[in-house]
Amino acid sequence: MRRIAIAALLACTLAAEAPAQPLQVREIGSLHVGGRIAEISGLPEQEITFSPGAPPLRINPNGQFQVEQMYAQYVRLAEPRARYPLILAHGGGLTGVTYETTPDGRPGWQMAFLRAGHDVFVTDAVERGRSGWARFPQVFPGEPVFRTMGEGWGLFRVGPGDGWNIDPAQRRAFPDSRFPTGAWNQFMMQAVPRWVTTDRQIQAGYDALVQQICPCVLLVHSQGGNFGFRAALNAPDKVRAVIAVEPSGAPPESQDAAALKEIPHLVVWGDYTSENPFWQRIRSNIDRWQAQIRAVGGVADTLDMPAEGVRGNSHMIMMDTNSDDVAARINTWLERRGLVR
Questions:
Q1: Signal sequence: where (predicted)?
Q2: What is the pTM of this model?
Q3: Please, which residues have CB within 8 angstroms of residue 191's CB and are 6 or more apart in sequence?
Q4: Whole-Å CA distances, 90 to 124, 232, 256, 305, 316
Q5: Which of 85, 112, 158, 201 could form a disulfide with 68 if both were Cys (CB 3.0 to 4.6 A apart)?
Q6: Domain range for residue 8?
Q7: Model confidence over 158-210: pLDDT tens digits?
Q8: How many structural domains is the chain composed of?
Q9: Are strands 216-221 and 239-245 parallel, antiparallel or unpaired?
Q10: Phi/psi of residue 136, nearest 5 degrees
Q11: Does residue 56 sit within a domain?
């Protein structure tokens, strides 16, 4: 594993020294997959003026609606080196913007993996971003959850939980934090409402995408972790590998992992998980799932950045100042697994 890290580090150094060449792109596009038609009835009509100066219209909110679809944007290279497209799945309260750019304006993992030779699909899960909402509680049970600006400061391990302050000058980050803390407010502009009642619908969206575009490799983050693990279980003939970046959930202990024997898994961890009780519990659960995969003869590797001698990575590791280094290490793992030419 040490040789992998050194090779990835050398690749990053050489890439930084050489001028970036323009990408040769074959196609950019998008698609929606999955979803269903829902019918709503019994709601009162409303009179709405859509634009200043326009006459009001009587609107009947009842009828049929397309709901629970999932959006993905793709970039296909003229000559990809990866054998299969890479699906990037975000975490809770976020969208595909997670991978498009960093809060301080550097290219995100979408560009990093395109430059590494992958066709890339960036997703917005059901009820996020360009996938769109549906009425609640008529379609989505319950109400959306909104993340405060301070919640993620401790939860995402940028700094101690009590280190958040509305005044940027008063915020306390971990001394070696690699998150660009000066851009925290910019990062929070990416936050969107989420539901905690839509796992089934989100899973159906990812399963539909796998059926439509795969064979493929899944790279998933945080809440997206469980959807990636489950997508591989649901379509072991189509998923070639799963990279789970700080996944927050895993299938239960009762789940048979035999279907994953031929699907290599890599779990990536940042720093400060051992000091955080919430993340200790999560890591224990993920360790258990990796052990289940190994028990059936499968591959379940771990890239632990502190164990590699790299301190300070946050939960948003794809936005940290060493994000290109982490992406290179992941790509090296994919090369070792024969998934990059």
A1: 1-20
A2: 0.92
A3: 93, 94, 147, 152
A4: 7, 16, 26, 20, 10
A5: 201
A6: 2-13+23-41+61-336
A7: 999 999 999 999 999 999 999 999 999 999 999 999 999 999 999 999 999 99
A8: 1
A9: parallel
A10: -130, 140
A11: no
